């Protein structure tokens, strides 16, 4: 049996090699214990002996390995397994033999004492760190942790910087020993001190498995660390940041799909927006979003996630800027503020640091939150954004800004503006034609790779549909058939490109939300529109994103809100 052989090799994990091998296998072994428990709890003693004849030996060896006992939930699962074996009143010789064979009560007592850290196994960790063998009690354990934390930090006495640092080899050894301990509350100060430790070594001193373990525990909310520690983790160990982004993408395509509120909560809990105030972190996160967009051909879920991230990021920047102003007013700087001074200087630079391929003037315009502008002026603001984007995209003299894709990628970051174009076209009071600037912006936002001629054709088709919808808006009666005819569906013309079809659907959905009679035909129209699962999810995403945007912009539209919520609840029930 694989794990029995491993446990025999690990023994008491007394050598560097066996400790390293144990730490590498801890997550897999914990999962094995969990599966073993699921099997044991459904069996009686005879079935256990028949199917797992060596289970007692395996659990006994496990109980003697302090690295396993200290890791995450392994100790708890091990107790569950032992409780499945013990029989208070054996009914037959087999059960009596089973109790004697496993020495279950002794093993349980051993584990429970380990749980209180009132054991000699802690010597394993202290010996590696150079401490003398002794019995360590909880109070002494805390003192040991605090002592190690103080050694990892610089000491400042009377204004003189006297450094008393650990040797790099000892820091690395300490990080290795802490791999199975990262989820224990008593060790959080030590984990934080290791992450924020900065020596003068040319290479990273922390063990990679330690960084992996901390990041996994943080994502699973098994450990609580300040943003400064997480920032240090991601700066010194790029795979941890990449895994955090992959964890986000998994949520986007599974449990949290089209739930922007939940995505926002995850992002804030993950410290991604706050850590992204450091330009290096922002650039990595933004590049992964860029790659995800290209790989998914502009998936709406990824676009929505970018917009949520950007909003949270801008909020974090504003919060950091306010804190810095308050600190400057007080005229005091702690040691930590001094250490981060270089980062602060970087953040005072223009947003060119974060968006190096974008027009600085365009960035500053997009950074204006729509909520800070009177609602009656949104139309003019969008027109100004459209003119600036068009100049960058279609004027060859602006080639230094990276071309159409880079301009579009910048624009979609700011969902407060990007998602309100169709809504503004639908709610515009203009009696005549729709503004060309907004039509261009709408066509560009949905198809940035299109050439000038194709974009112009899209604008013509959208303009025709919009004209029909505006006439229906004043009609005393509405029907789903009228809306279908206005959208030009079922006609004999050439099929529209997918991006153009998506634009038309967005206009129709906005019409249903804002037209006085839209609520009466909304369900029928959506049934006709949602011919595929992809379109169904597109509509759900639109409604979720619209409600999310209205909440943040404090849009007062009770009837439209009520209809959007009802439709969203019904479609989620069908999806």
TrEMBL record:
One of its GO terms (biological process) is interstrand cross-link repair. It is found in: Nucleus. One of its GO terms (cellular component) is Fanconi anaemia nuclear complex. This is Fanconi anemia group C protein homolog. Keywords: Cytoplasm, DNA damage, DNA repair, Nucleus. It comes from Physeter macrocephalus. Belongs to the multisubunit FA complex composed of FANCA, FANCB, FANCC, FANCE, FANCF, FANCG, FANCL/PHF9 and FANCM. This complex may also include HSP70. The keyword Nucleus applies. Pfam families: Fanconi_C. DNA repair protein that may operate in a postreplication repair or a cell cycle checkpoint function. May be implicated in interstrand DNA cross-link repair and in the maintenance of normal chromosome stability. Upon IFNG induction, may facilitate STAT1 activation by recruiting STAT1 to IFNGR1. Its main location: nucleus.
């Amino acid at each position: 049996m694989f794990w029995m052989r491993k446990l025999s090799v690990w023994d008491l994990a007394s050598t560097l090699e066996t400790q390293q091998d144990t730490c590498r296998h801890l997550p897999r072994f914990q999962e094995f214990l969990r599966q073993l428990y699921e099997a044991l709890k459904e069996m009686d003693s005879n079935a256990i002996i028949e199917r797992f004849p060596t289970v007692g030996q395996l659990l006994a060896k496990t109980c003697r390995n302090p690295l396993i006992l200290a890791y995450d939930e392994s100790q708890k699962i091990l107790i569950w397994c032992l409780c499945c074996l013990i029989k208070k009143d054996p009914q037959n010789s087999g059960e009596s033999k089973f109790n004697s064979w496993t020495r279950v009560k002794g093993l349980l007592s051993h584990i429970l004492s380990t749980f209180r850290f009132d054991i000699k196994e802690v010597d394993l960790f202290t010996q590696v760190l150079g401490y003398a063998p002794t019995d360590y009690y909880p109070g002494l354990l805390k003192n040991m942790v605090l002592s190690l934390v103080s050694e990892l930090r610089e000491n400042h006495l009377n204004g003189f910087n006297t450094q008393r640092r650990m040797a790099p080899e000892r820091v690395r050894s300490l990080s290795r020993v802490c791999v199975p301990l990262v989820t224990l509350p008593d060790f959080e100060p030590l984990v934080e001190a290791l992450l924020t430790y900065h020596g003068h070594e040319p290479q990273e001193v922390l063990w990679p498995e330690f960084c992996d373990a901390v990041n996994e525990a943080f994502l699973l909310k098994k450990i609580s660390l300040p943003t400064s520690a997480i920032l240090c983790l991601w700066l010194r160990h790029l795979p941890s940041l990449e895994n955090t982004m992959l964890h986000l993408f998994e949520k986007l395509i599974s449990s949290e799909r089209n739930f922007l509120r939940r995505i926002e909560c995850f992002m804030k809990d993950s410290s991604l927006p706050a850590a992204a105030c450091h330009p290096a972190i922002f650039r990595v996160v933004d590049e992964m979003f860029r790659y995800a967009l290209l790989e998914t051909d502009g998936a709406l879920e990824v676009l929505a996630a970018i917009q949520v991230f950007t909003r949270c990021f801008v909020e974090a920047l504003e919060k950091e800027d306010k804190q810095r102003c308050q600190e400057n007013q007080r005229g005091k700087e702690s040691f930590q503020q001094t250490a981060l001074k270089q980062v602060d200087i970087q953040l005072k630079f223009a947003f060119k640091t974060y968006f190096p391929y974008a027009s600085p003037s365009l960035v500053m315009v997009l950074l204006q939150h729509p909520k800070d502008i009177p609602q009656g002026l949104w139309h003019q603001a969008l027109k100004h954004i459209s003119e600036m984007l068009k100049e960058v995209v279609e004027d060859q003299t602006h080639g230094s800004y990276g071309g159409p894709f880079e301009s579009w990628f910048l624009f979609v970051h700011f969902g407060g503006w990007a998602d309100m174009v169709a809504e503004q076209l639908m709610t515009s009071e203009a009696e005549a034609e729709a503004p060309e600037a907004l039509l261009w912006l709408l066509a560009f936002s949905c198809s940035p790779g299109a050439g000038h001629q194709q974009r112009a054709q899209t604008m013509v088709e959208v303009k025709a549909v919009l004209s029909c919808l505006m006439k229906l808006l004043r009609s005393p009666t509405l029907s789903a058939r009228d809306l279908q005819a206005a959208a030009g569906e079922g006609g004999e013309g050439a099929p529209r490109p997918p991006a153009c079809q998506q634009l038309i659907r967005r206009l129709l959905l906005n019409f249903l939300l804002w037209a006085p009679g839209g609520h009466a035909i909304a369900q029928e129209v959506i049934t006709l529109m949602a011919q595929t699962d992809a379109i169904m999810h597109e509509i759900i995403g639109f409604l979720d994103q619209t409600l999310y945007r209205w909440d943040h912009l404090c849009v007062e539209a009770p009837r439209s809100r009520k209809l959007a919520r009802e439709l969203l609840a019904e479609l989620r029930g069908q999806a």
